[in-house]
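Exam prep: given the inputs below (a chain plus DLL), describe the expected output before reading on.
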Amino acid sequence: MGYFQKDIETMPREQIRQLQSERLVQTVKRVYDSVECYRKKMDEAGVKPEDIKGIEDITKLPFTVKHDLRENYPFGFVSADMSEITRIHASSGTTGKLTVAAYTKHDIDIWSDLFARCLAMVGADKNSKVHVAYGYGLFTGGLGAHYGAERLGAAAIPVSSGNTARQISLLKDFQSDIICCTPSYAIYIADELSKFGVDKSELGLKAGVFGAEPWSEEMRKQIEEKLGIKAYDIYGLSEIMGPGVSMECEAQNGKHIWEDHFIAEIIDPNTLEPLDYGQVGELVLTTITKEGMPLIRYRTRDLCSLIPEKCSCGRTHVRMTRVLGRSDDMLIIRGVNVFPSQIESALLNVPELLPFYHINVDRRNMMDMIEVQIEMTEELFKAENEVRLAVKALSEKEINSSLGISVIVTLLAPNSLPRSEGKAKRVTDNRKY
Ligand code: DLL
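Solution:
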């Protein structure tokens, strides 16, 4: 499928590395001179900008963590003059203060290019109509997708999230070919179609650009089937830019990280040592062209691995695997590390269950207990009690055999869990630490 900036997207790896080296040196100089926190961090680590001669020196640089951004809230990490800042976003996260992201006009320009690359990658072009159902506002999803669609020359349709009835009628009337939203909202929209008497064949959709939360291959299959489209994974985070840091191509085997603008490393989240390609660890990103708020070795907390091999799509930029979970939302259940996405994968192997679930974690008599509430299909809901009990037992076994932990599965009637129009909240941990 199409390229937006072919020469860059297929640039030989040695050339990418050279570009990264030059841009890293510039960025380090820039932040040392303009961001007090970086000057302090680098002085403490005993490293001067002159010590960074290329990408091979990146490990000499200190990490940046979310806490640093919060401590310097709101604008302590801004590296440009306020007169040059043209946009400010913020991410609420799950706890505490907002994390702010500030952009210059040049930053917004690059972001638009990168999202345009992502859209072209999944077959969009200037004839496309892009239905944007990510939230518009401080969240980066809506405006990120919007500017990308416009940059490509496609028609951006700024629907934002919510009001599912209107989403469906607009999808049908406008015959949009691309939809951008969270995967959980895509499933919700798909399930609501029948309620409005709309069949997927009446929509013009061909592809979806889904991200902002972890999702599984099983969920992909369901979305693709229910909407009759190809479902692609997009990744990003506000601190680094927003959506479009990386995107899946037609091979659907990992997301290309746009390495002409970001340097990706994987580290062991405990020892902080760099890990090799292929090893699962925490993704660390350095921005190398940002002016508003460049970040050096930002610990994303997202766990994945990097795939360096050449991709069948022709793009040379390194790929990251699906995000397995976050090093900070990993549940430790009786000593076993468990990610909500692993529970999702195991349960969606059971065809009688729907992809709407919630995990409750509790501690009783010093023992960690997990209850997974999951919705049944209409058919199972109407079936005999014994049939339901058999499915419950089977799903408990699925989780046990794939994760090595025992859980209690509670089957719920269809539509009993709250639906999410943005990021889904999947876990409630009631344990007292
Ligand atoms: O979620 C930006 C975004 C919008 C990405 C739309 C993709 C689509 P934040 O609100 O700052 O920004 O949240 C960033 O969301 O560190 C990941 O933990 C998670 N995340 C984002 N995309 C994916 C994905 C946006 N494709 C945090 N798979 C990140 C898994 C994702 N997790």
